[in-house]
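Anyone else keep sequences and structure tokens together like this?

Example one:
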Amino acid sequence: MDMDGLESDQITKAQVHEYTRTAKDSTDSSKEEEATVSDQHSQQYSQQQQQKQLSHQQQQQQQHHNRDDVITSTVPADDDDGDIADEEEEEGLYQDEEMADADEDDEDDQYDLDLARIQTGQAVAESGFLLNPQPKSLKGRKCLVLDLDETLVHSSFKYVRHSDFVIPVEIENQLHNVYVIKRPGVDEFLQKCGELFEVVVFTASVARYGDPLLDILDSSKNVHHRLFRESCYNYQGNYIKNLSQMGRPLSDLIIIDNSPASYIFHPEHSVPISSWFSDTHDCELPDLLPFLEDLASKNVDDVGLVLDVNL
């Protein structure tokens, strides 16, 4: 056997093997580089998509905030409709003490306020009060101030199959349907109150929502006056229904509102009522009528003496 030939053959095979291994390593390295570049592109694309999605969500949240702000009761200026139920318990332990201190401060602040003074930008009647003088047809009647949302009706921008009526509301140049459900007994309640009192619907919602709603809800014209957000008193970022600005004697003023914050200045003139959303078995409005009929009597000189729970 030719040993030189065999050695030459073995060298050739070794060279081929080395070449093959080098080529394979080069290919693997190239694939790794391609994979790295691909991963980078994928990450960049993913980040871009996340940014687009976040931007879209922020736009939607802002639209929802602007839309929901049309229908509101008492809304803090910095309220973002956030759910604080998931806050840590430790933080909640200190909240009660802080709220108690804040309530004491608020109470002190109230005594320093001139409640009859009209604020800058607040809408008033020609009289300089929220209402013009009582018309002759209503002379001698006490004045009943009624809240709208969650007191007389519940409204939603979401489709409600059993809604009583739907009103279109323009928000940022777009029409949105508002689905309205009437609280059980509201028609009878308004009719009877219209016979007994000078009735004012005072809502912290805007007029472009409240006016068309009341046009339908109060087709019999039992409500004598309508007041909206621009007539509210701004106190620490909240919309307050300030009875001292109504232009009626406080002794003749009654307010029914599901939100106690709305009548923070005059709790002794309030008739509490629960917030209503959809309970078809609710009967609070009809149940209030006998009591309101008693309050409307000329034998009651000062409603505050009857309603003040502290007396």
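And example two:
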Amino acid sequence: MLENTVAENVLGTIGTICWCIQLIPQIIRNYRVKDCEGVPPLMLFLWTASGVPFAIYFFATDGAIPLQIQPQLFTFFCLITWVQTLYYPPHKISRRRLIIFVTSFLLISVGLEVGFILWLRPLYARGIEWPMLIIGIIASILLAVGLIPPYFELAKRKGRVVGINFGFLLIDSAGAFFSILSIIFGTVDIMSIVLFGRKEKATDDSSSLESDPEHQEITVQDKSEVESKISISVNTK
């Protein structure tokens, strides 16, 4: 039992660390190029919003400490990236509107988290679990729906991947993997596994698309050019 507790906290901590730094490569990329073309603001907003029910769920169910911290960090870094997608081209909204959006979101998020945690934790302690199930489903839906906007970006560019940093996707997937292991070694909570499993699936879907820190674009039309380069490389060797 002690070994399981140690494993739960160690794996949860590793997962949390991954999610602490997951969006840093994307944030750095956005800052350097001062452009967020191909990075849909709606995706980042939905991911930022999903952090609220995530936090409510793990605080109210008294999850492992790393799992309680992770949603806050996830929301924080998603919020920064969301702000970048609004501030930099192609959207580039005014600072005044940006401040209004961010301030409103923060106030609403804090109010929801505090209110629901204080209300749901005693209910969960008494064995009333259905409200937490609803919160978990909401978090999962927000995270999953956030995957839809990138596909519209791909459709607009006929399959070209623009603006997405591969380092972000890789670290994000690792965070989901270690967090799921943490839950498995601890008290197995099916909804927790579903939440993190959905996030890992989301990252895997995105990471299957090639990308780089700048504006790497890979299309079906490039196939002949790629094959030609491979042929030249082989002949050179």
